[in-house]
Design brief:
This protein is α+β, with helices and mostly antiparallel strands. The chain folds into two domains: about 1-170 and about 320-334, Ribosomal Protein S5, domain 2 (2-Layer Sandwich), CATH 3.30.230; about 170-310, Alpha-Beta Plaits, CATH 3.30.70.890. Helices cover about 35% and strands about 30% of the residues. It contains nine helices and 14 strands. It has helices at about 65-85, 105-120, 125-135, 190-195, 205-210, 210-225, 225-245, 255-270, 295-305, and strands at about 1-15, 20, 25-30, 30-50, 55-60, 90-95, 150-155, 160-165, 175-180, 275-280, 285-290, 310, 320-325, 330-334. The strands form three sheets. Strands 1, 4, 5, 6, 7, 8, 13 and 14 form an eight-stranded mixed sheet that branches. Strands 10-11-9-12 form a four-stranded antiparallel sheet. Strands 2-3 form a two-stranded antiparallel sheet. Strand 5 (about 55-60), helix 1 and strand 6 (about 90-95) form a beta-alpha-beta unit. Helix 1 packs parallel to helix 2 and helix 2 packs across helix 3. The structure holds ligand DP6. Ligand DP6 binds near residues 16 and 139.
């Protein structure tokens, strides 16, 4: 047994996952495409210890509610089953993004937990197996395992549903500037939202159009065609939010400031600042621009009165940052 620490990035989906064909296995209705983010990550340490009566889970600086704890324990249980062990674990986890930013990344959390816990349990899993396992904790976590720009293949079974790297981080110098707007946790979590998606009249046409969108974005990524890329990611974000807003009950994640930024982005493009937006299940806006325009976009956001921004470049997926081998009492760095 070892004590293992892993780090994993959050990721921003350009073509999104909203709706599942298998609830329990978290099989998504469609393929999705994302980029790992350099400045929003989770660091998690796991050790399995003989003397523990139950799993101990601590999140630095935050109090975990029972539901979140159970989700982590369920994930540890999957890993114990795979490793054929019964020992409980001590888990300490920390997000680098400050509490109250409205960013709650289950993706970075479950990717870091999957890598740290499987390594601590001496399982030697391939990247594909890690992605499959992370997906069962949180769907989007499977995209935080491989490097850079990733595609999650929806698949029709658990073994066929995983993410892989399309391109490494240095493939394209683009930047994701997150404008932090929401300070409170969202009322309806992504997990609950996925279940509601099918109640929208727009859900079916959305899913039918997904293959074409994936094809277009892959072409744009291959050609590094920023305009084509930007147009498709904006269309996609609005399309997903249209489904959310027309679900029963309706989900409105946007705040007035969200809309203000959307309109400003359109104006900025008119004055020759190529920048596009995408938005996940929350009010924060991700502004995607080319590296050369990063400062201009940040300045523009500040001029709108946005006080908190997080600047991200494409980055690698989950990795181990330390391993200790145990002889019972003392630890050896391994
Ligand atoms: C809007 O991966 O958070 O960010 O599988 O229930 O944990 P669970 O859902 P989650 O959903 C992500 C939704 C999204 C779009 C995306 O990242 O693709």
């Amino acid at each position: 047994m070892r004590k293992v620490t892993a780090i994993a990035p959050a990721n921003i989906a350009f073509i999104k996952y909203w709706g599942r064909k298998d609830e329990k296995l978290r099989l998504p209705a469609n393929n999705s495409l994302a980029m790992n983010l350099s400045n929003v990550f989770t660091i998690t340490t796991v050790e399995f210890l003989e003397n523990l009566k139950q799993d101990q889970i601590k999140m630095a600086g935050e109090k975990l509610d029972d539901k979140s704890k159970k989700r982590i324990v369920d994930h540890l249980e999957r890993i114990r089953n795979l490793a054929n062990i019964k020992v409980h674990a001590r888990v300490v986890t920390k997000n680098n993004f400050p509490k109250g930013t409205g960013i709650a990344s289950s993706a970075s959390g479950f990717a870091a937990l999957t890598l740290a816990a499987t390594t601590a349990a001496d399982l030697k899993l391939s990247q594909k197996q890690l992605s499959i396992l992370a997906r069962q904790g949180s769907g989007s976590a499977c995209r935080s395992i491989p490097d850079g720009f990733t595609e999650w293949r929806a698949g029709n079974s658990s073994e066929a549903s995983y993410a892989y790297s399309l391109y490494p981080p240095n493939w394209w110098d683009i930047t994701d500037i997150i404008a932090i707007i929401g300070e409170t946790p969202k009322k309806v979590s992504s997990s609950e939202g996925h279940v509601l998606s099918e109640s929208s009249l727009f859900y079916k046409p959305r899913i039918e159009g997904m293959r074409a969108k994936i094809r277009i974005i892959k072409e744009a990524l291959k050609q590094r065609n920023f305009k084509k890329f930007g147009e498709i990611i904006e269309e996609e974000a609005v399309n997903m939010h249209a489904v959310m807003m027309t679900s029963k009950p309706a989900l409105f994640y946007w705040l007035p400031k969200t809309m203000e930024i959307i309109l400003a982005v359109q104006d900025w493009r008119d004055i020759d600042l190529p920048v596009y937006f995408t938005i996940d299940a929350g009010p924060n806006v991700h502004l995607i621009c080319q590296g050369k325009d990063e400062n201009r976009v940040s300045q523009k956001l500040k001029s709108l009165g946005i006080k908190k921004i997080i600047i991200n470049k494409p980055t690698n997926g989950a990795r181990i940052i330390s391993k200790h081998l145990y002889d019972g009492t003392r630890a050896f760095v391994g």
